[in-house]
Structure to design on (386 residues):
DNA sequence: CGTCTATTTGAATGTACTCAAAAGCGGTGG
DNA sequence: CCACCGCTTTTGAGTACATTCAAATAGACG
């Protein structure tokens, strides 16, 4: 149940087995069925979620009712609305499952207790935040300068696992185009060989 | 010289005057003239820069030679290429000054010494990173779901000081459109009253 | 097998871009 | 102080890329 998390954390920071054991008590396992929500917009986001298996997504709904996906999370990734989680403000995002999934939840207060119990984890979450921020910068850069086709190719290259696991219309939403356009882009690409 | 920085930091964390004094020695003041560079792409980004006055920008140049602005920094803001700064990898960004400016530079090793000398600053930089990450998320969300006009209006609302200080073509680059399009959007908006 | 969802395709439309040129503005030097 | 130069902003005309609306086809799931 915690094997994946253990590998995930010790990839980034040094931790004795004993220290890791102390961590596990702060997490709560939850199974989330396809289409079930972990967060509805308007609620406060209470959890950091680490995905053991399955796939979740975080998205907004605009004034026309269209969804825009900000993040996918598959096995070995974290998902949350950090703004709401940190500030306690109601979220403007939704998080739901694209497949039956299992996550490990870390509540805000549990996280603080975790930092007390194993201070090295502060460093872990700082590193995690840094790499997320850098990834966000790259995505902004892409959105500004790349065509839809380029954005799709970058997506395929960056997240090959997601391409296999996630429906095409969800990927279209992530890169900011309609499913129809993505279908045409893929047709073009396969014509090029 | 350090007044602005002092106010900036103590807005976010508690710090005794004595502690703040210890901080100042790790910074180096530099004046940057309009069009001068703080970072050229291909170089490693050595500094975190705090802007005392003036205005800098960080941008990429795409394969067509067009610039895309990722960040502005005026008085009381930080600017750096965090990816390069943290990883030591050559940067793909440029940082230059849009106006004559004065910055306080914090080198990577100086920052580590600073953390030794005043551990509370670790917390400060974590908070800074968190708010930057959240802002980046909002910008991605905008880029996905909003029209050029909406993006401009959001920009005006979010950064009123920048609108006054920065040429229009630079704002166009930041929101991901051409200067011509922004000119037309503004004309439309003023026609609506 | 039937239903629901995802993908593909077509035709018409629209938003923003490109190319080109004019007008406006600010600073510099004669 | 004015003339000139460089840069920014505006405007026009034509174009391209992606969207919308609509419908057909393909796939997945019970």
């Amino acid at each position: 149940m915690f094997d994946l998390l253990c590998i995930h954390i010790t990839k980034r920071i040094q931790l004795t087995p004993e220290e890791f054991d102390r961590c596990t008590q702060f997490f709560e396992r939850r199974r989330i069925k396809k289409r079930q929500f972990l967060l509805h917009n308007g609620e406060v986001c209470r959890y950091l979620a680490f995905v053991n298996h399955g796939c979740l997504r975080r998205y907004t709904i605009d004034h026309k009712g269209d969804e825009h996906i900000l993040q996918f999370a598959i096995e070995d990734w974290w998902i949350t609305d950090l703004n709401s989680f940190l500030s306690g403000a109601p979220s403007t995002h939704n998080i739901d499952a694209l497949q039956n999934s299992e996550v490990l939840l870390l509540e805000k207060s549990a996280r603080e207790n975790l930092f007390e119990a194993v201070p090295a984890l502060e460093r872990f979450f700082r590193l995690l935040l840094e790499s997320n921020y850098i990834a966000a910068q790259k995505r902004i850069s892409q959105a500004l300068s790349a065509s839809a086709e380029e954005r799709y190719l970058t997506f395929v290259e960056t997240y090959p696992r997601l391409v296999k696991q996630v429906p095409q219309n969800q990927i279209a939403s992530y890169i900011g185009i309609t499913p129809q356009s993505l279908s045409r882009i893929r047709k073009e690409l396969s014509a090029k060989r």
About this structure: Chain A has a mean pLDDT of 95. Residues 167-169, 179-180, 182-184, 187 of chain A lie near DNA strand C (CB under 10 Å from a C1').
